Amino acid sequence: MTKQSPIVGNVSSDGAFDVVFKALADPTRRALLDALVVADGQSLSGLCDRFPEMTRFGVMKHLAVLASANLVITQRDGRSKRHFLNAVPIQQLADRWIGKYAQPFTRSLVDLKHAVEQTA
């Protein structure tokens, strides 16, 4: 069973990561997330200004994919909507997939560094 939180999203299912991986696989969506890191809470118009090569509809489609992965949270602000980065799914992905595989290699490199320093 998967617990749902409005900010965090699916927190206990590896299947939930499939949506996040799919969203992060596209360079345009990663660029949209980077734009939100620089200035969080941007309107659709503001994001469209950052991507003049894309149509408004194209930006909206990419935002929809990011929102379905819970990487972007949209809030109404009068007549417009503001888009905010939610980095929690990325951290969960890193904890579950990246950290688990990187630690044995990094631990070995740190041990090797200490061994080399002691013999030098």
| Overall helicity | 55-70%
Helical segment tally? 5
Radius of gyration: 19 Å
CATH architectural category? Orthogonal Bundle
Low-pLDDT sequence parts: 1-7
The CATH class is Mainly Alpha
Residue share in β-strands: 5-15%
Strand order of the largest sheet: 1-3-2
- Please, how many domains? 1
**Quick one: how many beta strands?**
3
- Say which CATH homologous superfamily is assigned: Winged helix-like DNA-binding domain superfamily/Winged helix DNA-binding domain
Mean pLDDT: 87
Basic shape: elongated
Structural class: mainly alpha
**CATH topology, which one?**
Arc Repressor Mutant, subunit A
Between the first and last Cα atoms, what is the distance in angstroms? 54 Å
- The SSE string, one letter per element, is HHEHHEEH
How can the largest sheet be summarized? 3 strands, antiparallel
What does this structure look like?
The protein is elongated and about 65 Å long. Mean pLDDT is 87; it is low at 1-7. The chain has helices spanning 15-24, 27-38, 44-50, 56-68, 88-119; strands at residues 42-43, 72-77, 80-85. The protein starts with 14 loop residues before the first helix and ends with a helix. Helix 1 (15-24) packs antiparallel against helix 4. Helix content is 62%, strand content 12%. It has a three-stranded antiparallel sheet with strand order 1-3-2. It has five helices and three strands; from the N terminus they run ααβααββα. It has one domain (15-119): Winged helix-like DNA-binding domain superfamily/Winged helix DNA-binding domain (Arc Repressor Mutant, subunit A, Orthogonal Bundle), CATH 1.10.10.10. A hairpin with a 2-residue loop joins strand 2 and strand 3 (80-85). By secondary structure, the protein is mostly helical.
